[in-house]
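Journal club prep — side note

Before the paper discussion, L.F. wants everyone to see what a predicted structure for a comparable chain looks like in token form. Sequence:
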Amino acid sequence: MNTHTLGRQGPVVSEIGLGCMSMTGVYGTPNEGEALATIRRALDLGVNFLDTADMYGNGANEELVGRTIRGRREEVVLATKFGFVVLDTKNGSTVRGDAKYVRQACDASLPRLQVDHIDLYYQHRVDKNTPIEETVGAMAELVAEGKVRHLGLSEAGPETIRRANAVHVITAVQSEYSLWARDPEDEVLPTIRELGIGFVAYSPLGRGFLSGTIRSPEDFEPDDARRTHPRFQGENFQRNLDLVERLREIAAEKGVTPAQLALAWALSRGPDIVPIPGTKRVRYLEENVAATDVELTKEDLERIEAAVPKGVTSGERHPEMSLIGL
């Protein structure tokens, strides 16, 4: 497993990480035993970069990760996030970035994770009612106290990133990035490259769509959150499925899976980009990790670009209720 340094002076992470969100729901029924096995197998394969958040499963995801890495803490670069405050099932969630909440959230995450420090601590979404200087200032205090090693932002815009980095070095920015979600290329990637900030790509498989395993909306369990996403609904679904078919043809010619082709594309975008595909199953983890061995030629990249050009995806990437903080 190759490694990259996140940012100019950040942690050394595996070139591909593991998103743990789906291990406690969101995308169907969780299986704790399989989830534990998946994290352990990831570490065995050299995947040291684990990504969780306090809102995943209302803390259950952090607890799961914490239990699993106990005894192997030195092998892990542990990233978690704060910012979403779950109100109730009727009112959904809101975002907080005030200094009081930053400290409160960190002090709650540490015992759930069973660690004395967090390697990379993200603001999950920007709180538009709190100056980013206040939020990052409070996060910087956590660094000074040894509770956090490095700071990050998730789904932040260029101006916010600049203001945050002026308060304390931002090690990484995390945003959705894949063949069908290339928005960061316009402004975010140029900004962080100028500032020497690393980029962490979540959902590099288009929330599973680019894996080629999803053939119908009925493939989702009744409680799978993707049923509410515009790209997985109505005519958008079929249009996007047609894009995946184009990728499937290229992948078949190279003797790889569509997921491996999509991840190889993400890996080809630069050593400062670290994709963190999420999965809750060992077999998909192993398939994803094998993508690090896939070499794409200039011709391959041109064919992929022609098959799935920037901006061709149908539908918004989030349902309206999830746009908070974007």
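L.F.'s comment for the group: The mean pLDDT is 90. Keep this in mind when we get to the figures.
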